[in-house]
Design brief:
With 550 residues, this protein is an alpha/beta fold. It has 19 helices and 20 strands. It folds into three domains: 162 residues, Pyruvate-ferredoxin oxidoreductase, PFOR, domain III (Pyruvate-ferredoxin Oxidoreductase, domain 3, 3-Layer(aba) Sandwich); 179 residues, Rossmann fold, CATH 3.40.50.970; 106 residues, Rossmann fold. The chain is globular.
């Protein structure tokens, strides 16, 4: 066997996400590729939380329903997830709180005897898992020391007690493979933005984008980065534009409800041509919806947000390498074309943990922009063939740099003259041709699976992981547009060559990508839609694809 799934569950406050992350790193240490899905309700304490960790000898981007190990800190974990277990599943549980068949460990007693805090129950269970999986204690000790630096001596004693309390059940052998770092989607996006020269990040916390704010705040001192938390999302967008007006490469982060508050400022950025990059992490809506669960329901909102007409980049990465690479590109493209760029992710990618292989990415770095080369007075909105005017930022000695939200002339002076209004609209929209030429050089549409197959799965965002695995098993092709605006029609049509049956896979109820491509003349034959806030598992999509293509 070369594929293992582990579920650890308990209540909020018991460190389930952290415990899952530690297990991920233990298995990564053994040479496995990793993916972790974290499921939690919008409660500060209580409720049922669980992390699904999957380790495989091949690259993965989705979870399995069936598990080889079930690690339970509470009764709910056993009761809710019993259906995932088979005769071969090793069930390890806290015998002080759980009634189940399997291997019970008196975890509460051990933690109390060792003078630990209540959150250390997960450390004890992780130790028990290590022994049940046949992992040498030296490996466990090494990873725990790195991952749990606080009160490490107490944690190690508790973990060792858990380790000694069980017997080996399902050994997970070490693989002779290169180890890769583990990143969440939000962390990869943060690193990509930094790679492209991010100077400032402005955000109001909102799940599932909050992890990006926390990550960048944690590394700000290492990168001379300003991280600012204003009072609301309106202030976020306006502060970001003020920073960009002064020359700082700035990004903001939010989710659907916060982006609603940003839309007037987004439209202002379209008129003033001030660059701004927005990381928009989708979750279930409308309104508050399911704030800690996933969705792909905001595509058309993002494509059309803001009053009036102005060009924008909309980029939707689907895996960890794409998140890193395309976040850097989004920041560069925003500054090169002086337009908003929106990086559209979903909760599954944002908070999921993946093995990251940097060798699979193309270095991006910070790209230069067209700067003012002299001449006075400075014409902030000078007419050019591409619609992109040479950029200058304040302060500029002897010059005034306008950022006018009204219609204006080349110098930025307000006007309502019909000829100038028409001229400015044409100048602004002329950028789209240049933007499209640019993205066509950047592989804006990716494919996976069997490239010669005549049946293809069409997906966007995080569904690329599960679609690629299912297609690989079934001999199908996968088509994933990464850039959604301006839409790369030529690259998309090239990917469609020889495809006679196209099946869309989306996490929404209306088929938003389907509607987008059908509006461009593409025919989608069928759709597999999920809209309950949960991502497709490997088994679920496999079965639904079989039903559709049968």
């Amino acid at each position: 066997m070369n594929d293992y799934s582990i579920l650890i569950g308990g209540k909020a406050g018991e460190g389930i996400n952290r415990a899952g992350s530690v297990i991920v790193r233990i298995l990564s240490h053994l040479g496995y590729c990793q993916y972790m899905y974290y499921d939690y309700p919008s409660l500060i304490r209580g409720g049922h939380n669980f992390a699904l960790v999957r380790a495989s000898t091949h690259r993965i981007g989705t979870h399995r329903n069936a598990v080889e190990f079930l690690l339970a800190l509470d009764q709910d974990t056993v009761d809710v997830h019993r259906w995932r277990c088979s005769d071969g599943t090793a069930v390890l549980f806290n015998a002080n709180k759980v009634d189940a068949e399997g291997m019970g460990i008196p975890i509460d007693d051990i933690v109390e005897e060792e003078g630990g805090s209540s959150v250390m129950v997960n450390t004890c269970l992780i130790g028990a898992f290590g022994r049940a999986a046949g992992i040498p204690w030296a490996t466990m000790e090494e990873v725990l020391t790195l991952e749990i630096p606080k009160k490490i001596e107490t944690n190690l004693r508790i973990a060792r007690r858990g380790y000694d309390a069980v017997e080996e059940q399902t050994p997970i052998p070490r693989q002779e493979a290169a180890r890769h770092p583990i990143l969440t989607g939000n962390e990869a996006i943060g690193l990509g933005l930094l790679d492209a020269g991010l100077d400032a990040y402005v955000a109001y916390p909102m799940t599932p984008s909050s992890g990006l704010l926390h990550f960048l705040a944690g590394v700000a001192g290492d990168f001379a980065l300003k991280v600012i938390h204003p009072e609301n999302e309106i202030a976020v967008m306006l502060m970001a534009q003020g920073a960009a007006y002064a020359g700082a490469r700035t990004a903001v982060g939010t989710s659907g409800g916060g982006f609603c508050l940003m839309t007037e400022g987004l439209s202002m950025a379209g008129m003033t041509e001030v660059p701004v990059t927005i990381v928009m992490a989708q979750r279930g809506g409308p309104s508050t919806g399911t704030p800690t669960y996933t969705a792909q329901g905001d595509l058309h909102f993002i494509l059309n947000a803001g009053q009036g007409e102005f060009p924008r980049f909309v980029i939707s990465p689907g895996n960890i390498e794409q998140a890193y690479e395309w976040s850097a590109r989004a920041l560069n493209l925003s500054w090169k074309y002086q337009v908003p760029s929106i990086l559209l992710e979903d909760k599954t990618l944002a908070e999921g943990a993946y093995s990251f292989d940097r060798d699979m990415t193309t270095p991006v770095g910070r790209e230069a922009v067209a700067r003012r080369d002299g001449g006075s007075p400075y014409r902030r909105y000078a007419a050019t063939e591409t619609g992109v005017s040479p950029l200058a930022t304040v302060p500029l000695e002897g010059e005034v740099i306008k950022a006018n939200s009204y219609h204006h002339d080349e110098r930025g002076i307000t006007t309502e003259d019909p000829a100038l209004v028409a001229w400015l609209n044409e100048k602004r929209m002329r950028k789209e041709d240049a933007m499209l030429e640019e993205i066509d050089r950047l592989s804006p549409v990716t494919t996976a699976g069997d490239g010669s197959a005549d049946t293809a799965l069409l997906c966007w965002g995080s569904n690329i992981g599960v679609c690629a695995e299912v297609a690989g098993e079934a001999g199908l092709k996968v088509i994933q547009p990464i850039v959604l605006s301006p839409f790369p029609v030529q690259a998309f049509n090239t990917a469609l060559e020889n495809v006679t049956v196209l099946i869309a896979v989306e996490d929404n109820i209306t088929g938003q990508l389907t509607r987008l491509v059908e509006g461009l003349g593409c025919c989608v034959d069928d759709a597999i839609l999920r809209y309950d806030g949960r991502p497709f598992s490997l088994e679920e999509l496999r079965e639904q694809v079989r039903e559709v293509v049968a």
